Amino acid sequence: MTQLIEYIQTAKEFADAYGIAHLDRLLALAETVPTSPKAQPSTFTVMSNTILEQVEMAGFHLNPWLKTLILSNNVEVVRDAIAVVEENRRRGIVRNGEGLLVQAIRNQWKPHISA
């Protein structure tokens, strides 16, 4: 029973962090992949590393606190926040990129879409 509760809690945490649509896609993918889960790194770890790499590639310094904030939010929220900071960098109005990233994540800001 305890193991079942742990699986359910893990699924809930994933859905809270990345959205239910990602969880549905992962379930569909898992049903089609014949390999053992023990032979593969966990999907959560792979997705976590991917978003952290994207943040670093965008020029942000990742400290433990920022990593925790990023991993506790939906991937799309973080990507939107990166885009917001990049928009403001292009305008030349960013003094503290990491600080603006934090605000954009917390407030779930979306970038302006230009035609």
Q: Could you walk me through the main structural features you see in this protein, from its secondary elements to its overall organization?
A:
The protein is mostly helical and 115 residues long. The protein has helices spanning 2-18, 20-32, 43-57, 64-71, 75-91, 97-106. Helix 5 (75-91) packs across helix 6. The chain is elongated and about 50 Å long. It starts with a helix and ends in a 9-residue tail after the last helix. The relative contact order is 0.10. The model has no long low-confidence stretch (mean pLDDT 80).
Give the structure's gist in a few sentences.
This protein is mostly helical.
Give me the secondary-structure topology:
Blueprint lengths: L1 H17 L1 H13 L10 H15 L6 H8 L3 H17 L5 H10 L9
Helix pairs in contact: 1-2, 5-6
The overall pLDDT average reads: 80
SSE order, one letter for each helix or strand: HHHHHH
* Overall morphology: elongated
Gyration radius from CA atoms, angstroms: 17 Å
Helix content: 55-70%
- Terminal Cα span: 54 Å
